[in-house]
């Protein structure tokens, strides 16, 4: 039974979380031959003021332009 933990900095929409779960589940079915019911996916959204890299909180970094298909950092859109 695959257990997949995904941590994301910031927040994403419910629709995005649903799509991630569907995509990861489909990948485990295709690549490992697992039953969809056996695949467990846990998405944890880490607030950007609780996560840092390179000595700087993610929340304190200058905003970068979102990549095509990415949701804005506020999870809206």
UniProtKB/TrEMBL annotation:
Where the record annotates domain 4-oxalocrotonate tautomerase-like, the positions are 2-61
A Pfam family reported for this protein in Swiss-Prot or TrEMBL: Tautomerase
Matches recorded under PANTHER family: 2-HYDROXYMUCONATE TAUTOMERASE, TAUTOMERASE-RELATED
Name of the protein described by the UniProt record? 4-oxalocrotonate tautomerase family protein
